[in-house]
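Practice problem 4.
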């Protein structure tokens, strides 16, 4: 198995937020270099104040996040996601990679990405694969390119399962942080009347539009570049946010104006250690939990 190491250098004050975002790519395949409190930690842990000179010389102002991604995952997707979310959060960063050559990222992982069946009705099929649809499922063809969202990541599959269950026909869907467009496209294919995807990353929106065209639903699924506040209008029956816990927490205060009475909000991208933070914020903003699912240390909720 080949591995790619992605390293992200960020100012130390942004380390916690940056780490939470990095957790979206691989929940526990990371480690952090942060020497800002070296002396205090050395005394607290080992009760010594004599520290190796090389450690003393380390950068105290910046932290380095190391992420390890196997060849069966899409390192390009992970890198694009990190760049998008750090930019959206206003986190200064430098990103680099070692291991598998960057030029091979797009191809190396494809041999591991095969059609997957999700929920009772849906099948997610890579654009380069053939799928024998023996059970008459709704087929969603996807080419994630450099955008987040193949359906294989636990956070995405959990959202797809909720959509498979709750879309009955004719709904108006909003997908916040749409990535490859997979959730918005799935919604329309499952029977929603229309879907709007919004993402701060122009490349993700370009990929989402291409995926909508490939699935023959360009008229029903629209994708725009921007954020929720300055680009989205109207009311929606289902709102999806497969992002990270801190962004979801901030959304609770503003998203209600886009919801009809009885609308659902599907949230995912929440690592288990942040579950209580999200639920507390949801309750404080008047949301109640209708359903919850857990997979591979990730949490997803349907809220009203």
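Answer key:
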């Amino acid at each position: 198995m080949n591995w790619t190491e992605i390293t992200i250098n960020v100012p130390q004050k942004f380390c916690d937020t940056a780490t939470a975002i990095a957790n979206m790519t691989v929940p526990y395949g990371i480690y952090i270099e942060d020497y800002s409190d070296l002396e205090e930690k050395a005394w607290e842990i080992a009760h010594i104040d004599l520290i190796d000179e090389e450690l003393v010389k380390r950068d105290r102002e910046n932290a380095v996040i190391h992420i390890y991604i196997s060849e069966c995952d899409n390192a390009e997707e992970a890198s694009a996601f990190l760049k998008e979310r750090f930019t959206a959060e206003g986190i200064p960063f430098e990103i680099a990679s070692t291991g598998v050559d960057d030029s091979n990222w797009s191809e190396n992982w494809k041999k591991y990405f095969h059609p997957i069946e999700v929920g009772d009705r849906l099948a997610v099929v890579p654009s380069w694969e053939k799928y024998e649809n023996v059970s008459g499922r709704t087929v969603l063809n996807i080419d994630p390119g450099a955008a987040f969202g193949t359906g294989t990541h636990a956070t995405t599959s959990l959202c797809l399962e909720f959509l498979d269950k709750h879309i009955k026909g004719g709904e108006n869907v909003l997908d916040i942080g749409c990535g490859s467009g997979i959730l918005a496209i799935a919604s329309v294919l499952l029977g929603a009347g229309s879907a709007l995807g919004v993402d701060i990353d122009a490349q993700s929106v370009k990929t989402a539009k291409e995926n909508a065209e490939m699935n023959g639903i360009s008229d029903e699924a629209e994708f725009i570049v921007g954020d929720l506040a300055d680009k989205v209008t109207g009311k929606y029956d289902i709102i999806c946010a497969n992002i990270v816990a801190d962004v979801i927490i901030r959304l609770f205060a503003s998203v209600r104006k886009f919801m009809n009475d009885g609308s659902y909000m599907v949230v995912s991208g929440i690592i288990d250690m942040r579950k209580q933070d999200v639920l507390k914020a949801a309750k404080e903003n008047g949301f109640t939990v209708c359903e919850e699912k857990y997979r591979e240390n990730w949490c997803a909720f349907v809220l009203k």
